[in-house]
Amino acid sequence: MAEALRRDLIETAIEMNRCGLNRGTSGNLSVRHGDGFLITPSGMPYSELQAADLVFVSDDGRFEGEYRPSSEWRIHRDVYRAREDAGAILHAHPVHCTALACLRKPVPAFHYMVAVAGGKEIPLAGYATFGSQALSDNVLAALGSLDACLMANHGLICLASEMQRALALAVEVEQLAHSYLLCLAAGEPSLLDDDEMERVLTRFRDYGNRGRGEGRG
Question: How much is the pLDDT for 206?
Answer without folding.
Answer: 75
